[in-house]
Fold this sequence. Notes:
Shape: globular
Order of helices and strands: EEEEHEHEEHEE
Number of strands: 9
Distance between the termini: 42 Å
Structural class: alpha/beta
Number of helices: 3
Amino acid sequence: MICYMDRFLGRGECQYHIFTYPCQMSYYQYLSNQFPGGYYPYVRMVSLYEDCPFEHEFFLQITQSFPFIEKLVLINRKPQQHKQSSESENDNCHLSIVKYSHLIELKIKRVYDDYVEEFLSEQKHFFKIIFVFILLVKLY
Length: 140
């Protein structure tokens, strides 16, 4: 059995995740930085939501835990704190590249520009397929 709790301080809410492991669910919604990891070969859709920033290492954990992910939704209004500059390749040379071997849809909504840069940087992310649908909704 897997059990963990997310706290969303900005909204004053908590969310509990309780499920058996190994689990055969095909989607995982509202995943946060509190995600404990694991291996979920049946999950094809993941949505990420958090009041705290997602850093590059978190996206590495996502691809390791969900190797067959086809759809990824990202919602995060907090800018990354450990953002590497796209202007300096030296900043990015120590990063592991996040590989999405099966991703066909990426929705980036209600995010800061650093997440768009995070996903579009060749030094940070690799998409095996030729076409990835990106839905971007700008915060004003």
